[in-house]
Amino acid sequence: MLRRFLVLSAVIVCAMHGVAQKTISKTEFGHLVDYANCRYVMTFIEKNDLSNPNFTDTYEKRVKPELSKATLDNLEEVASTETLNKLLANNGPAYSLVQKVEELKQNYDRCATDDSLIASLKMTAWQKVDLSATAEAIRKEMLAKYASNKGAKSASGNAAVASQASNGQFQEEGETPVYSIGYQDYQESLRTFKLIVTALLGLIFILLAVLFFMLLSVKKKMPGREYVIEQVLNSKRISRKFNPKKPSSHSSGSGSSAFSSGSSERSGSSHHSETSGRSSSDSVR
User: Fold this and answer.
1) Axis crossing angle, helix 132-167 with helix 181-221, rounded to the nearest 10
2) Among positive and negative, which fits the CA dihedral 38, 43, 45, 50?
3) Which tens digit of pLDDT belongs to each residue from 203-229?
4) Residues 6+ away with beta carbon under 8 Å from 11
5) Could you tell me what percent of the chain has a pLDDT over 70?
């Protein structure tokens, strides 16, 4: 039963690891932050600076065309933080927003999965300007992009492995090894599975060892069978219960003497009464 539980737990953890692993690189995440930065800045300026006299000349003609280039299909063309700083040097609130979003790049090492990385890019508002709708749109776009990428990589990897197996293609000596994405994921999952099983077995061994030493210590502290018997046999309470104290001969003699003296007194009293009675009878006569 325990073995089945351990195997099932390891399989579940391994499956979760394969599904929830982080595939976004640090460089790619930096581009995603730049993309989100462009989207947030566009929304903020269009809501906050719409009544500004320079809105058309500054934003519509100079800033917006650069921000509009940001797409998830080509992240390398997304405007960087340095570019945004130059474009928004005269717009204090928008410039501050760029710096705030730039700090989100530090979340890469804190997140373990693609979903958590994407969720870390959420900005709900900036200086009372609502950005929640833009944040939700960014989240959905990125989730859709990386969900489709995972499916495509998995399908292509499995197809490549199947094709090589069916065609009997093997790597010749001296060639650079080429592994498919699916095979790499399988190897990583297998290593993780082995580590988990090893850790669980080690933990079980430690628990069993601790339990064994605890039982051994308790057994040493418990009194032996001979000791218990000796204590019972030498117990005064047991002796008094099974060997009641007999009445002494002195007590019996005293009782007999008392009984004899009592009888003598009664006999004397009876004799005296009879003598007195006779004397009275003689006087009457």
Assistant:
1) 100
2) positive
3) 898 988 888 878 777 666 666 666 677
4) 193
5) 55
